[in-house]
Amino acid sequence: MMDPNTPSFMLPPQASTLAPSYDLLYLSITYLCIFCFVLIMGAMTYFVYKYRYRGGEHKAVEITHNTTLEIAWSVIPLFVVIGLFVWGFRLYLDMAIAPRDAMEVRVTGQKWVWNFEYDNGATSSKEFAVPIGKPVKLVMTSRDVLHSFYVPSFRNKMDVVPNRYTTLWFQATQLGDQQVFCAEYCGLDHSGMLAQVHVLSEPAFEKWVKDHSEDKNAAPHERGKKIFNGKGGCMACHAVKSEAEQPQPVIGPRLYQAFGRTEKFTDGTTGVVTENYIRESIEMPNAKTVAGFAAGAMPTFKGVLNDQEIGDLIAYIKTLK
Ligand code: CUA
């Protein structure tokens, strides 16, 4: 058996319980195809050479049919294909149906960040944690367009669709980080729509969830910072420090020293960044677009963040100076 952490010559590392069975089926089909290809092409090349034209006149012997051969070449592949179907279908069911005791994590895709929410209210963006050796079920939806949640080392991928839920489950077998990709082209920063799965021991996982839980007694700007980096996912597009300190990201306007600043908009008008301007930008991002940025890049957060959360975010943005 190969070391699960080392990628094989054509497959990524195996980091979930399903990965080895998936690879076995995949490699079996691949090698079967290679075997058939070599067999058929080999026989063809051989006959082309053996029965090549060597001058003179020849009358071909016409063979109309051969019942034994015809039944053999129909029935044998039929059984092979039925076998592959049953094998693949059983594995598909294993991948599609999560165990009943699976822990649930809600996942929201938005341009261009993955957000995660736990049953106790803990939230995070661009990263989430799971305990090793426990089945985890992701209940996923999108805030805007079609995305696809893809973890190559877990061997699973599922479309994330607006206005409906899709699910995906896995049981991690290796401690450490695994890479999440967005596998459906979703616009400008599709290739940057990444996340990390931290596979942790049970105690480390408990601590991680606690650290990412909301503290109701925290100051508004502290709560706002958590929303900014967690539930809101704002940090995926907006930098909060000076250009020298934090060159990326630059998808949205830099919020460092933004409060009170005069912005120039794409329609030529200007406006001062006030509480009302920030609120409008969160709820109706397309009302005004700062010059130099793409219109429509930001999704609305109306109905996603409540009044208090928007207030907390404003309090946080005021501290960025
Ligand atoms: Cu989200 Cu591509």
Write a concise synopsis of the structure shown.
The chain has 321 residues and is of the alpha+beta class. It has helices at 19-50, 67-96, 202-211, 220-229, 275-283, 307-318; strands at 103-110, 113-118, 123-125, 127-131, 135-142, 147-151, 156-160, 166-171, 176-182, 195-200, 262-264, 270-272.
Folded structure, characterized:
With 321 residues, the protein is α+β, with helices and mostly antiparallel strands. The protein is 32% helix and 20% strand. The protein has six helices and twelve strands. A five-stranded mixed sheet has the order 3-2-1-5-8, with helices on one face. Strands 4-10-9-6-7 form a five-stranded mixed sheet. Strand 2 and strand 3 form a beta hairpin. Helix 4 (220-229) packs across helix 6 (307-318). The radius of gyration is 28 Å and the shape is elongated. The two termini are 55 Å apart. It binds dinuclear copper ion. Residues 109, 112, 147, 182, 184-186, 190, 193 line the site of dinuclear copper ion (CUA).
